[in-house]
Amino acid sequence: MIIFIVRRLLQTIPVLLGVSLVVFLMIHLIPGCPARAMAGEAADPVQIEILREQMGLNDPVLTQYFRFIRRIVTGDLGTSIVSGRPVVEEIFEARFAITVHLAILGTLAAVILGLIVGIVSATMKDSFLDILLMLVALLGLSIPNFWLAVLLIIEFSVNRGLLPIVGWGEINQMVLPTLTLGISGAAIIARMTRANLLDVLNQDYIRTARAKGAGERIVIFKHALRNALIPVITVVGLQFGALLTGAIITETIFAINGMGRLIIQSITQRDVIMVQGTVLVVSIMFVAVNAMVDIAYRLVNKRVDLN
Amino acid sequence: MEKDIVLQVENLQTSFFTEDGELKAVNDVSFTLEKGQSLGIVGESGSGKSITSLSIMRLLMGTTGRIVGGKIVFNGKDLVKNTEKQMQEIRGNHISMIFQEPMTSLNPTITIGEQIAETIRGHQKKDRKAAWEAAIKMLTLVGIPEPEKRAKQYPFELSGGMRQRVMIAIAISCQPDLLIADEPTTALDVTIQAQILSLIKKIQRKSGGALIMITHDLGVIAETCDTVAVMYCGKIVEFATVHELFESPKHPYTVGLLSSIPSHETDSDEDLYIIDGQVPSPYELPKGCMFAPRCPHSEDICKNELPELTNLYGSRLVRCHMQQTEGREFANDRWKSPSGR
Amino acid sequence: MSVSTKRKLKKIFKNRQLTLGGVIVILFILLAIFAPLIAPFDPLEQSMQRRLQAPSGEHIMGTDNLGRDVFSRIVYGTRVSLVVGIASTLMGGIVGVFFGVIAGYYGKAVDTVIMRATDILLAFPGILLALAIVAILGSGTEVVIIAVAVWAVPSFARIVRGSTLAVKKLEYIDAIRAVGAGDFRIIFLHILPNVLSPIIVQATLNVGGAIVSAAVLSFLGVGTQAPTPEWGSMVSTGRQFMLENPHLVLFPGLAIFLLVVGINLFGDGLRDHLEPKKTK
User: pLDDT 10s digit of each residue in chain A, 307 long?
Assistant: First the structure.
């Protein structure tokens, strides 16, 4: 098991290197150059040249890449072109925590809602409720979350005046963003749970459990659910990634000052260094979460140990 | 005498309802089983033998199958009329079952000790610790070495034979009156098969309970059973004591089955007999005798009229027109050379 | 024989998802093709006298802040969404299938390199990579197509690689090779046709995902730019007026939703039909 954990963690290194390479290349693929962007459109060529030299943009690309890696490792993601503040400071001061908080709440909402719907649907297969829930799940899967957010605002904030339209921090401010984020994930998890549970309920060991005289509750919660949920763990990990980007939309709509909103603001302000830093941080988080999910999967699924 | 009857199945009919219509998997099956007795049900796959056992356990949920007629009287009470709750009382407690696939019949995420203990806890007023100890006792009983250690292991850590022993331990953990073994050795290595069979037999003798052995292998029947029912296309075609059946098979299908057993005396080079043709599709059953299309003795009446299950003598039953009219013996050698050779 | 063909027909007919989804998708395609005939107004024509009108007999979905007819804009918006969805799926699909087949067929180092590259692309969650591309290339419909196409490449590559590996193991491929067929011929004539079903299913579902991603980019203001009628940007602009004029966000959002539901139903149905084993 420890060998597996170490190997899985080592596996992330090439991926992280690749991610850093892509992010590094961003700057070099941009038409024009960041030095011009920093100096402003009106800057004269001499000024730009000085900046280029300062930023090391005249060195060979490989040298620049190694320097970039060295900087990342020491926790330096550069300085924002717009605000002039270090990117790391901008991200980790408050925004990082807000986005993580939002993503965790969204994941929790997705898992809780998804499991309940999936289990109810599977145990009542082909009933009216099952068909209705699966229809709702299909709709939830297809609804664009920015539109869902707007609908939620119209219903709960505008029409009923129950919840605030913008902001983050108070519990009532968290409800709509969490729902916006959680619903598509809930739909996916509900469909997965139902399909897996139905699959597991057809397994021989479920028949064995029934042959022992186990009641329906024990059959489902003790024998079936445990096995049905193992594949769902992977989906939860993938969902977390979807939620990280879902946060971009949610934060923009609900005016929450997280990393997602920062990315969009930086893109519109053409603050490439900031975009670079934020994209890198979000991707590293995603890679880390996926590695943890894989490890959790192994821990829960004892069967794979043999292979 | 009456008291000794454990199970009496009367005119059992179980059907599956698919898009293409009703599929009569078990069609008018009757038999009785006394205490301490062991009955073999033999037939090819699709003959309805497994569905018969699942019907007795009322374990058809999750399928489209349903008992559509007949009675299953167990210890004087008709199981068909029981509620699911009442059946849960009986399953694992008074009637237990061992399944064919030991590799998939145990829950992969639960320790084997717990899988036995939960059965005990479900039916007896024992706390966790007492049930666990009872489970270990059961593992010892079925011949698993180091039971304390094994109890804490997961199914994937055990071999197929060991897992089947665990299945047996689960089945007998509440000393059932009736044990149903559905192809318990089919998925196992030949060397393990004999061990498992003798274990089942030993346990049944010791407990004095009744046993139903379901198999496609007449060799298994010979080793474990007193009486035997031969099933074909959902119907019993012959019923006899094991001795009678092997001595003088009355139904052409039984004769065919017997001829297809490899024996020690025959030369290994010699081809085994194979019954011509295939089991008819359950959707398009022949009008007359189900076996007529494959039967070398069939005559016009066989193709047009379904023969009744007729009592020849004692408990001996056979469903064949030829037997009714003439009472003739089908010579074994007639089967030795398949037609066309 | 007749029973089995009857059963097959019955199955297609009974696949209500496939039928319903197909009908929705076809309706939207017709809407896109015949937009000039269906739209009652010019989608770009502004009028200050008519601005922010509620739905009425003349403007069945009302007018926007610049007095443009919402219904006409939605009809024309179908074109943008379908073009982006289909074009990016084609681009991403072709590239992904190419790399997937190469990886699966040649194996070894080629496989390792390609699969590590997809790992890296997949390490950017959701639309993040698309956003990064937009940040580099600037906004606009063409950039959106490229950005969304890149996002689709790794999933196609993975699916095709897996199927190729399975097909490659079949004996007849060895037989063909023994006869002297070249790699190119084997890949195009024998492997690709055999991995077509998963590609078709993935492509269908990808169109839906691509349409949503494109709408998201436009909603965030970094996709298709004004004044081109695009559903995502219509919702975005409508948001400023939604307190008094909820129709400005309701209708364009509903259009995306309906089209995506249609595509997902169609894709799900298609999967049930083409790969029945996976669903059972």
Answer: 788 888 888 888 989 999 999 888 887 777 666 666 666 666 677 777 777 777 777 778 888 888 888 888 888 888 888 888 899 998 998 899 999 999 999 999 999 999 999 999 998 888 899 999 998 998 898 899 899 999 999 888 888 888 888 778 788 888 899 999 999 889 999 999 999 999 898 889 999 999 998 888 899 888 998 888 888 888 888 788 778 878 888 999 999 999 999 998 988 888 888 988 999 999 998 899 888 888 888 887 765 443 3
Q: Are residues B204 and B252 in the same domain?
A: no
Contact B123 A213 (CB under 8 A): yes
Smallest Cβ–Cβ distance between C212 and the set A144, A266, A275 belongs to A144
Q: Which of B88, B100, B159 should we substitute to test contact with A (largest number of A Cβ atoms within 10 Å)?
A: B88
ipTM confidence score: 0.84
Please, what is the Cα angle at A169 between A166 and A170, to 5 degrees? 85
Residues 49-88 of A with CB under 8 A from C: none
Rg of chain C (C-alpha set): 22
CA distance linking residue A265 with residue B47, whole number of Å: 71
CB contacts of B96 in chain A (<8 Å) are 211-212
> Beta strand B310-313 with B77-78: parallel, antiparallel or unpaired?
unpaired
Tell me the chain C residues in contact with residue B20 when contact means C-beta distances shorter than 8 Å: 3, 7
CA B236/CA B240 separation, integer angstroms: 11
Contact partners of A by the rule of 3+ C-beta pairs under 8 A?
A: B, C
- Looking at chain C, which subunits does it touch, using at least 3 CB pairs closer than 8 Å as the criterion? A, B
pLDDT digits (tens, 9 = 90+) for B194-207: 888 999 999 888 88
Is residue C43 domain-resident?
Answer: no
Domain count, chain B: 2
**Chain A residues touching residue B88 (CB < 8 angstroms):** 213-215
Report the alpha-carbon distance of residue B131 to residue B119 in Å, rounded.
Answer: 9
- And the tokens for A230? 């193992």
> Which amino acid is present at A76?
D
**pLDDT averaged over every residue in chain A:** 85
- Per-residue pLDDT reduced to its tens digit, B81-97: 999 999 999 999 999 99
Closest approach of chain B CAs to the CA of C19, in angstroms? Answer: 20
* Cβ–Cβ below 8 Å for A275 and C135: yes
Tell if the CB–CB gap between A245 and C125 is shorter than 8 Å. Answer: yes
C10/B19 CB distance under 8 A: yes
d(CA B285, CA B287): 6
DSSP for A270-285? T-HHHHHHHHHHHHHH
Residues B214 and B252 in one domain: no
Q: What is the CATH number of the domain that holds B103?
A: 3.40.50.300
What CATH number labels A95-268? 1.10.3720.10
3-class state of residue C208 by DSSP: helix
Distance to chain C for A150, nearest Cα, Å = 7
Q: What angle do CA C98, C102, C104 make, to 5 degrees?
A: 115
CA angle, residues A45, A51, A57, in degrees to nearest 5 = 105
Residue of A nearest to C212 (CA): A144
Residue B159: count of CB within 10 angstroms of its CB: 13
- State the smallest CA–CA distance between residue B188 and chain A in angstroms: 16
Residues 136-155 of A with CB under 8 A from C: 138-139, 141-144, 146-147, 150-151, 153-154
Chain C nearest-CA distance from A180, in A, is 14
Residue numbers of A between 62 and 101 with CB closer than 8 Å to B? none
Domain that holds residue C185: 14-38+69-265
Task: Confirm if C237 and A138 have CB atoms less than 8 A apart.
Answer: no
CB contact under 8 A, C3 and B19: no
**Count of the separate structural domains present in chain C:** 1
